[in-house]
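Box 3.1 A note on notation
Throughout this textbook, protein chains are presented in two layers. The first layer is the amino acid sequence; the second is a token string describing backbone geometry. Keep the layers aligned when reading.
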Amino acid sequence: MSIKIDKKITDYQVISASSDTLETVAGEATSSAAVIAGTEAIPANVVQMHERVERPERLIGSTYKIKTPLSDHALYVTINDIVLNPETPYEKRRPFEIFINSKNMDHFQWIVALTRIISAVFRKGGDVIFLVEELRSVFDPQGGYFKPGGKYTPSLVAEIGDAIESHMKMIGMIPEAPLDEQQKKMILEKRRELSQRVDTTETPDSNDTQFPPESLLCPKCSTKAVILMDGCDTCLNCGYSKCS
């Protein structure tokens, strides 16, 4: 086993094979080699995602369709994953490359550039979740649009960020953060109160995505679902309240 010396040598000592010091040094070397530096204590033979991981012959992929009012043609975002440490307790999927295809050639140049850059970041390894927020913070100077359900999307690039977020949630990189029971109960009560005010006989469902047309945009979930109730702006989608 080779040991990298990254400090200046100031002293040395010759030890014999029968020396107790040799056993101590060997034990320390084995211990340090068995565990990667970090709090998770992952064995050193576990492969982590980095730029030197070679692309295998076969990758697992998922394709997401993006249809926007900005174009008559849909975009198809394909994200291929590499499976690290297969058939071991440390098996995990990590995004390796991304492709975007469409009949619309208006955005061909920057889409090709974007896919190559994102793929390079994927292969670099580490925490790549920041890509989602970076893409979703891109605003179109001509204005965004609302997706079905009332969620506002500031740009086509942000829509690609949403697709990457959905994929990362699917493979477990981004943990799901559903509303707790208290938040669900509060939202359902607010919807019932609203239905009573507008003389609606239907009882709203907790999974209903229809919100009043006069609703405002929620700063937390970017959904047009904020209404004024009891003198306080309340989101009927995520439970955000300006007064809390």
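Residues 181-235 form one domain. The longest helix spans residues 108-124.
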